[in-house]
Design a protein that fits this description.
The chain is mainly alpha-helical. It has 16 helices and no strands. Helix 2 runs antiparallel to helix 3 and helix 4 packs antiparallel against helix 5. It is elongated.
């Protein structure tokens, strides 16, 4: 088998696997916007598999130009998908669509205008600089919220995203920029296609093992999770000890509370505490768990006539929030109203 045939076979295998993933995701999660993001990511990745060309010199053909633009804009989808996957409070907004459209339009115009004008190398460099920028945003999002993640399957996916983004995404972009204009390299394309197929295959295996529905499921409302504590007998003692720690010591009030601090106080490994809070109490994020207790304290203070003159910011900071903005957003997400509105309703009903 020639290198060209091997390259085509690897690309075809990756595209076929991505098509199967897109169909499976559409069947199971097509009605959820997170699932639709995953489908868009799979289709954009297929466009990448069909169009990447290490060392290419010729201007892109008119037929391949839309696919190249879709492949370039797929890095925006990856960034949004990782935000949706790792941040339970994330929601898509119209601005995100405009960002995708801007990257798609930039890539499309660069292929249609700069490429035919003899600036093929500039097109490749510009598209890959964009890719590296959004890749950096994706890595930052993935790493920043890693410590607070309580879903074990999702934590493993974070590790994979970091490894894949650096080993394939970053290397591929740098290699394409360094090789642009030097002539196509069959060997480089085969190696690149093999690496891409390995990434796609690993994603498929992880979704089969972890379960896309479990990973992409939205977080249960914190208030409901607090009320629905029904731990197994083996973990009841630990759950009781954890809840006493939160109720008696009010450790959630402390600044920079970590899951490691709580695990040390309970004399158990961190992974066991993560599993306990996630599996028994229903939380997917440690900060959401802390905020649920903070908000319960704040609700009691806001409803107390004796504290009617205490500023909302004071109540928020006493409960463990560091500023008013995050407190207002977290409070409204749980109760549906602002702290001021909640206080007015509760005091008028008293």
């Amino acid at each position: 088998m020639t290198l060209e045939s091997l390259d085509l076979a690897l690309r075809a295998a990756a595209i076929a696997l991505l098509a199967v993933l897109a169909v499976a995701l559409g069947r199971d999660l097509g009605r959820q916007w997170r699932g639709r993001l995953a489908i868009a990511l799979a289709l954009g990745s297929a466009a990448h598999a069909a169009t990447f060309n290490i060392g290419g010199t010729a201007a892109p053909s008119l037929a391949s130009t839309p696919l190249i633009a879709v492949a370039t804009a797929d890095i925006v989808v990856l960034w949004l998908f990782c935000r949706a996957l790792f941040d339970d409070g994330f929601a898509l907004r119209w601005l995100h669509g405009l960002i995708w459209l801007a990257v798609f339009g930039f890539s499309l115009l660069s292929c249609l205008v700069l490429g035919p004008a003899g600036h093929g190398r500039l097109v490749i460099v510009a598209n890959n600089v964009l890719a590296l920028g959004f890749l950096g945003l994706t890595l930052a999002q993935t790493i920043r919220s890693w410590a607070a993640d309580l879903v074990e399957g999702r934590r493993r996916i974070r590790a994979f995203v970091v490894i894949a983004a650096l080993s394939y995404g970053g290397v591929n972009a740098l290699l394409q920029m360094a090789s642009a204009g030097r002539g196509p390299s069959e060997l480089a394309n085969v190696v690149n296609a093999a690496m891409f197929l390995a990434v796609v295959g690993t994603v498929a295996l992880m979704l089969l093992k972890v379960g896309a529905g479990d990973v992409l499921a939205p977080e249960a409302p914190p208030a409901a999770a607090l009320e629905a504590v029904a731990p197994k007998a083996a973990d009841r003692r630990l759950v009781d000890a954890l809840m006493r720690l939160m109720a008696d010591e009010r450790i959630y009030r402390q600044e920079n509370v970590t899951i490691g601090m709580l695990a040390t106080k309970l004399s158990i490994p961190e992974y066991r505490l993560r599993r306990l809070i996630n599996g028994e109490l229903g939380y997917r994020n440690f900060n959401t768990f802390l905020n649920a207790h903070r908000i319960e304290e704040a609700k009691a203070a806001l409803a107390d006539p004796a504290q009617a003159e205490v500023p909302v910011i004071t109540i928020a900071m006493d409960a463990g929030f560091q500023s008013l903005g995050p407190f207002n957003r977290a409070f409204k997400a749980v109760t549906g109203v602002t702290p001021t509105e909640y206080r007015r309703m509760r005091l008028s009903a008293a």
